[in-house]
């Protein structure tokens, strides 16, 4: 990018000024106490994380242009103009700032914040240096191990040496899998950020309904930080001004996955408890399974290293974009599917085991229908039909 182009970028914008004023007002002594006294601590967390992210994102755009932290167009990428890719740092600062100022610091929260910060740094380094896939995976495993070390694991299997081992492995697979699945969805304007907002919304609703305020406040902090970044990342007219980058998407995916592990989704019923986050994160789980099976079946990957290194345009948003001929329609479809599965998760929380299984089966049928629709919309399939 030419220096003259960089000089046109300004970080002092009306949005940045408005967000900064909001932050200053919220930090005035007594304002936080007012919200807490009114029983609206969640609203304070939401506003602070939103204003911080909204104010800092223009600065990230300016820094990205200034320092050359820009994502350039390429064959496997959808965008057509060089775009700054350190916007995730604004989301991170909005999230962690609201958490620290509100002293939301239980032991398990500290572990998530430390591990998430580690992955943010590794992700930003990857954006700049293009780190090998095995290194990033190793960092994710270390981060997940730190959270698991605090005793936060999924409890699908019964207690006992074997059950505890399986629960630990399942938790590791969940955190690492969701982290990477979410990172893969950072491929269209507004998609990953919107997904983070929706996933956090459903987790926050369950958290407050089940009297888990700590979990709820973290979910709200993610909602606010995502909302502050979203207007710069998704615009109805024109391309995104900034991307999350690997740092931002990895941090958000990891944090959301850990919140799902922490949540107490149902009492004394491991099937129902595991079904809840499985439905909320259903789109991510479905896409990860789909691409893995398809890549192996078609011979695109034949080893773990090949799977880690493979980069393609075969994710759900890519397939829907080809079927619907519109990026906006693809994003809207994924959001609608996420809401549909999230509503099912709200219902399954109070369901019995048999009802939970039926809701999971219904979710599976929904994604099968989507798979059939997007498959029939693929160019190769259309050409075959037209030739008949």
Task: Describe the protein's architecture and organization.
This protein is mostly helical. It has 2 domains: about 1-265, no CATH class; about 270-388, no CATH class. It is about 75% helix and about 0% strand. The protein contains 18 helices and 2 strands. The chain has helices at about 5, 15-25, 30-35, 40-65, 90-100, 105-130, 135-150, 160-185, 190-210, 215-235, 245-260, 270-280, 280-295, 305-310, 315-325, 325-350, 355-375, 380-385, and strands at about 70, 85. Strands 1-2 form a two-stranded antiparallel sheet. Helix 16 (about 325-350) runs antiparallel to helix 17 (about 355-375). The chain is globular, with a radius of gyration of 21 Å. The termini are far apart. The model is unreliable at about 1-10 (pLDDT under 50).
- Unreliable spans are 1-8
Give the radius of gyration: 21 Å
| Total number of distinct structural domains | 2
The assigned structural class equals mainly alpha
What is the helix/strand order? HHHHEEHHHHHHHHHHHHHH
Query: What fraction, in percent, of the residue positions are helical?
Result: over 70%
Arithmetic mean pLDDT:
84
Per DSSP E runs of 2 or more residues, the count of β-strands stands at 2
Could you say which overall geometry the principal axes of the C-alpha atoms support?
globular
Q: Biggest β-sheet, characterized? A: 2 strands, antiparallel
Helix count equals: 18
Sheet-strand content, in percent, reads: under 5%
The main sheet orders its strands as: 1-2
Distance between the termini: 49 Å
Topology:
Elements: H1 3-7, H2 14-26, H3 31-37, H4 41-67, E1 70-71, E2 83-84, H5 88-101, H6 107-129, H7 133-149, H8 161-184, H9 191-209, H10 213-233, H11 245-262, H12 270-280, H13 282-297, H14 304-309, H15 316-324, H16 327-348, H17 353-376, H18 379-387
Antiparallel strand pairs: 1-2
Helix pairs in contact: 2-4, 4-5, 4-10, 5-10, 5-11, 6-7, 6-11, 7-8, 8-11, 8-13, 9-10, 9-11, 9-16, 10-11, 12-16, 12-17, 15-16, 15-17, 16-17
